[in-house]
Automatic annotation (TrEMBL):
Belongs to the iron/ascorbate-dependent oxidoreductase family. Residues 175-283 form the Fe2OG dioxygenase domain. It comes from Scleroderma citrinum Foug A. This is Fe2OG dioxygenase domain-containing protein. GO terms for molecular function: metal ion binding; oxidoreductase activity. PROSITE patterns: FE2OG_OXY. InterPro entries: DIOX_N, IPNS-like_FE2OG_OXY, IPNS-like_sf, Oxoglu/Fe-dep_dioxygenase_dom. It holds the Pfam family DIOX_N.
């Protein structure tokens, strides 16, 4: 049956090798940016062979003995990197039903006593013993750098699609010596037979500019995107990334680029676990986005008023949040997702953002973490 349901466009970078196809590519990219907020990216510069190697490692990473995974628990890391057991993370005040490792591009922390707290959110990540999964670290680091760079390249295409100079976004980026991109390697276990339907990841907007999600093959779509008042499946398409845009990009583009609300369902009972790797691209921390709002030709800007699915943007709440220093915006999201890590490493911020103490949902986790901390003697 034909439907008018919006769909997530597939952008094929191979089209760009033929100059005559460029306008078609740019028109579709513009539509994805303004009306959808999500796209599939095909033929990205990240080699399929590298992605294949990473995909092979992922189930083995989660199948490691629990005590080996716990050795790199996030509870050890002031930079919020490492392993989180099932249901230890928090999105929009709800517990997520997923287990994950947070890794990032190689980086030395720039935090110094007395310096801005947000610099503490960036630093080296924790890696497993090389013998447990030989080659994994090298593969993951190459992947992280490759996807970050693919994202930077995409930004110049985005600029072109919005009729800006191709370097219009360069001011938000430094080289990877100075900024860090982080990714989560996630396992969403299937839900129990008797359980009411649960969410693997609570509905949310991403905070930064761009997210690149690698979805491993799964028989059921579980990532869903809210469009036209409905939840639309972002069914995995082999050989593509799902790319979506965050609130910071929406903010600096005057609401022209759409950040779209999305969620992940727990895989149905009886199906295999679902794995994914979202990478949240790093941008500069030492700037105020409010001072960097981009200007567009009027005929481009008016396209946002023609969208069928209007967005709430530039609300007082958004404005207040995004008028902070870029580094604080990102760090604050980390704080809200991991109050337990915040309490441990940034007690003054815990007091400020959780004046009523540890959220109830996390009490169980906290007890677990304390046991763990005793075990590893920190
Ligand atoms: O696992 C996914 O497919 C997406 C997860 C996500 O949206 C997020 O972690 O921000
Ligand atoms: Fe997300």
């Amino acid at each position: 049956m034909p439907t008018n349901r919006p769909n997530i466009p597939v952008l094929d970078l191979a089209l760009l090798s033929d100059e005559t196809k460029r306008p078609e590519f740019m028109a579709l990219l513009r539509h994805a940016l303004i009306n959808i907020g999500f796209l599939y990216l095909k033929n990205s510069p990240v080699p399929q062979e590298l992605i294949g190697r990473l995909v092979e490692y992922i189930p083995r990473l989660f199948d490691l003995p629990q005590d080996e995974k716990d050795k790199i628990s996030m509870v050890n890391s002031p930079h919020f990197y490492g392993y989180s057991r099932f249901a230890e993370e928090y999105t929009e005040g709800e517990t997520d039903h997923r287990e994950h490792f947070d890794f990032a591009t190689p980086y030395e922390t720039r935090w110094k006593p007395g310096g801005p707290d947000h610099l503490g959110f960036f630093g080296p990540c924790q890696w497993l013993d090389e013998d447990l999964l030989p080659g994994f670290r090298e593969t993951m680091e190459t992947y992280l750098i490759g996807v970050h760079n693919a994202g930077v390249q995409l930004m110049s295409l985005i600029a072109e699609a919005l009729q800006l100079p191709s370097d219009a976004f360069a001011k938000f980026y430094y080289s990877l010596d100075e900024i860090q991109s982080r990714a989560k390697v996630i396992k969403y276990p299937p839900q129990q037979e008797s359980q009411a339907s649960v969410l693997g990841n609570t509905p949310h907007f991403d905070t930064r500019f761009v997210t690149f999600v690698l979805q491993l093959p799964h028989p059921r779509p579980t990532l869903q995107v809210q469009l036209g008042g409905e939840w639309i499946d972002a069914t995995p398409i082999p050989g593509t990334f799902v790319v979506n845009f965050g609130k910071s990009l929406e903010y600096v583009t005057q609401g022209l680029v759409k950040a779209t609300y999305h969620r992940v369902l727990s895989p149905p009972a009886g199906s295999p676990p679902r794995y994914s790797v979202p990478l949240f691209q790093g941008t500069r921390l030492d700037m105020y986005l409010a001072d960097e709002i981009l200007d567009f030709p009027p005929e481009i800007l008016k396209l946002k008023d023609l969208r069928e699915d209007p967005i709430e943007t530039n609300t007082a709440k958004d404005n207040e949040f995004y008028s902070q220093l870029a580094g604080d915006i990102i760090f604050l999201r980390g704080i809200m997702s991991h109050p337990d890590i915040t309490e441990q490493f940034y007690p003054h911020l815990f007091k400020k953002y959780f004046p009523d103490g540890m959220p109830k949902q996390l009490m169980r986790t906290k007890t677990q973490l304390e046991g763990q901390r005793d075990m590893i003697g920190t």
